[in-house]
Prior knowledge:
This protein is of the alpha+beta class. It has helices at 12-19, 29-39, 46-56, 65-74, 81-93; strands at 62-63, 98-102, 106-110, 117-121, 126-130, 155-158. The chain has a 3-stranded antiparallel beta sheet. The longest helix has 13 residues, at 81-93.
Amino acid sequence: xxxxxxxxxxxxxxxxxxxxxxxxxxxxxxxxxxxxxxxxxxxxxxxxxxxxxxxxxxxxxxxxxxxxxxxxxxxxxxxxxxxxxxxxxxxxxxxxxxxxxxxxxxxxxxxxxxxxxxxxxxxxxxxxxxxxxxxxxxxxxxxxxxxxxxxxxxxxxxxxxx
Length: 162
């Protein structure tokens, strides 16, 4: 187990695992990422394990594929940007990550898969969780026949006062 990574009950590994109905975890990110991948039906390849360690070993966070690729490069993990995108999409499809689009041009991957909304800080392109659980949409639009709402993602854009 790595002493630099705190084994906190509400860190991203535990949130993702609880949200997806995975078995109890140990607090050791390497072991827990392995368990999460296997429980989600994904083979724990070296690249998935290394990217999972980078994603989930630092607590709840929001990353773009480019940010994760840069972290992987600095950690000397030999992966291509295409592999990072593929892995992020596989983890999202498996319910271990939540995809959040901002402006339709920038996509973040959230390690916290629980139902919550976000602030987007325009000045530094940062996504931050909104911790107000009482926030709600007052009226939903009518949904076309044959469809149902899978989730609502609210992104509140913030800029510094002028």
